[in-house]
Amino acid sequence: METIEFISRSPSETWAVGERIGKQARRGEVYAVYGDLGAGKTQLVKGIARGLGVEDWLYVVSPSFTIMNLYEGASETLCHVDLYRIESPEFESLNIEEYRDQGIVVVEWAERAAWPPDVIKVYIEALGEEERKIRIIRE
């Protein structure tokens, strides 16, 4: 198991952490993102999009109502999922496995589903007004 930890003191630093993740991401990887409301999950996903070469990465928004957004990057497609409004049985119908074949999957509110061991877990914890602790765990 490998754990990497970052401290972010602003949204732009959170973008930078996400960009680093995006640049290192490989097709088929799933990132399960955990954190309270307002912790910075979507800011991290914006950075991942930037790292994948998504041209309009600043316009990445949480798909709370659409459940899933796809963004074409220079290197891979980003499938951005938000489970905030999903019940467990509904999750199965999203067919996340299908999107693994097309690129990278990032799931906000990941605690609302069960994940296989190969999923990369990302925990975001608010330490203050803008300060965040970001832990990335690969099993």
Strand-helix topology:
Layout: E1 2-8, H1 11-24, E2 30-34, H2 41-51, E3 68-72, E4 77-82, H3 88-92, H4 96-100, E5 103-108, E6 120-126, E7 132-138
Parallel strand pairs: 2-5, 2-6, 4-5
Antiparallel strand pairs: 1-7, 3-4, 6-7
Helix pairs in contact: 1-2
Count of DSSP H/I helices = 4
Whole-number total of structural domains? 1
CATH 4th-level superfamily: P-loop containing nucleotide triphosphate hydrolases
Helix-strand pattern? EHEHEEHHEEE
The name of the CATH topology is Rossmann fold
Instruction: Label the CATH architecture.
Output: 3-Layer(aba) Sandwich
Helix content: 25-40%
Strand order within the widest sheet?
1-7-6-2-5-4-3
What class would the helix/strand composition place it in?
alpha/beta
What overall form do the CA principal axes indicate?
globular
Radius of gyration: 14 Å
Poorly predicted regions:
none
Highest CATH level, the class: Alpha Beta
Residue share in β-strands = 25-35%
Number of strands: 7
Key descriptive features of the protein:
25% helix; 7 strands; globular; Rossmann fold; 31% strand; 139 residues; alpha/beta; 7-stranded mixed sheet
Give the structure's gist in a few sentences:
The chain has helices spanning 11-24, 41-51, 88-92, 96-100; strands at residues 2-8, 30-34, 68-72, 77-82, 103-108, 120-126, 132-138.
Please explain how this structure is put together:
The chain has 139 residues and is of the alpha/beta class. The protein has one domain: 3-Layer(aba) Sandwich (Rossmann fold). It has helices spanning 11-24, 41-51, 88-92, 96-100; strands at 2-8, 30-34, 68-72, 77-82, 103-108, 120-126, 132-138. Strands 1-7-6-2-5-4-3 form a 7-stranded mixed beta sheet. A hairpin with a 4-residue loop joins strand 3 and strand 4. The longest helix is centred in the first third of the chain and has 14 residues, at 11-24. The termini are close together.
